[in-house]
Amino acid sequence: MLCAGGKIVSVGETKDALKDPWFKKHRKNVREIDCSGRVVLPGFVDSHTHPAFISPRLVDFEERIAGATYEQIAAAGGGIRSSVEAVRKATRQLLADAITSALSQMARQGTTTVEAKSGYGLSLESELKSLEAIRMATAQWPGTVIPTLLGAHVVPKEFAGRSPKYVEIVCKEMVPAAARRKLARFVDVFCDRGAFSLAETEAVFSAAADQGLQVRAHVGQLSETRLESLLKFSPASLDHLDLVSDDDIKRLAQTDTVATLVPGANYFLGLDRFPAARKLIDGGVAVALATDYNPGSSPTTSMSFAMSLACTHMKMTPEEAIAASTINAACGLRLQRTKGSIEPGKDADLAVFEVRDYREIPYWVAANKCHLTTLNGTPWPVGVAE
User: Fold this and answer.
1) What residue numbers bound the domain in which 193 lies?
2) pTM
3) Is residue 341 in some structural domain?
């Protein structure tokens, strides 16, 4: 591979590269990275993460060990709402530092593109602050970050019993402000039992469309949501989909909406049920994988771990897991023209692994075999590619 200016210029055999006119002219200035005996993949695209938080949810962790369910913990004041106070009190810089740390961990494990959601502020001020912190962190990281407004994560406690009023704030204040300040590319909604209804989700989607923002949603994690009306908004991705009907699988297969599966959440929550990846794939649906990095249900930055879970618990092949973590995930962010595969003209996002067979990447459980990552042509960590 010949890369220049952060782009892949050509891909082929060494003899072909040596004939390249540009290479002949600039050969003395070219930095060579020898990947002999290693596997090189497109950089991972982690298309579903929640990095704008301050603290781990350790009380939730212990309560779950003791037998409490996700919904019981939320009803008792834990869950998503328990992360809100710290985010509201935090400075932009403190939030940005936390996000930057997560991005660095991701890069060390082969991830070069990350979708980053807000969602733990749940007020106009704090949601915008979270998006601003994501922008600040993005400026410190050579990879690509796609910001998403998730103001409709759950109803904050001050609006308990008044979800229509909160949805109105999301639609009339948060979405226009994020669009006006160019802080978000997507708007997301947690459409599920205990969060937002289908009608409320459609209202937020309509507000996003009015502002020229693309949409995506959490659906089918706790209860089944009929997808027909949501698909009319052409969402880039519908995520979780632990519960999805055969009819909706057929509907999904007729669209370019990606089903983004996050098995790390099922694992960490101790669930027996995992998304039906085989049924989705065999039904013609494009499936992506993501870490769902967050403090409550999936505190992992490792795409290779998500791939391992996909193979062992969802019966995806290693090849399918790699495609789901690269080109399909890029499609889920509408970045397939620049990300997700090793082709001339695409961004120089590459991950080099200290393995001899690509199947080893999901095989070695919770192990980081990444030797080097290049993010838009920048090696990470600096100094490895000497």
Assistant:
1) 41-332
2) 0.95
3) no
